[in-house]
Amino acid sequence: MPYSSFFYSSFTVAKAKKIFGLTLAEGGRFLPSIEPIAPSSRLAQALLDLPWAIAVGSEKAKSEGIIYPILQEVRRILHDRISLFSGKDFTVDAEKGLNGYVDYLISRSPEQLEIEAPVIIVGEAKRGNLNEGLGQCIAEMVAAQKFNQENQTNIPTIYGSVSNGTQWRFLKLEESTVTVDLMDYSLPPADQILGFLVWMAGQG
Question: What's the rounded Cα separation, in Å, for the pair 27 and 98?
Fold first, then answer.
């Protein structure tokens, strides 16, 4: 199958490693000790719907009911200095399969009409098994790295996340090495997840 017929969702971890010449490092937590951030009353109110999202169980419900409110809170904490996109087309290089929609993306540009570099975080929402989203997330991280380079805003690290709402797993891409934190972080509480995401959005 030619790469041009791939989409982000076509990628497994093995396929992403082979096509993009990546080295995979599996391990424990790579994030430094980060102060948790207590959710605002606005987020706490939104997360009252968490039992509904869990009961419905669909990827869309978990994304809209849990993940997106968390990411909106990150944007508010950073005083709208970042942009947040959900379900946005992020075609960077269709010939290499780097095309399709990303579940969410954070850029350190405040411009919201279009995705502007530098892209710092990409992520995937999954219904259940987080392993199923790793290859897709890695391909999106590679796309973000390439997008930043093409826009002369190269930053050393791209972060990724795969979440089913109540569990979050984090990745990072530095040059051609992808590090996967094999520890899953639980929500609730939201404090630790918020601390991680705010820290990542401020890096680079």
Answer: 26
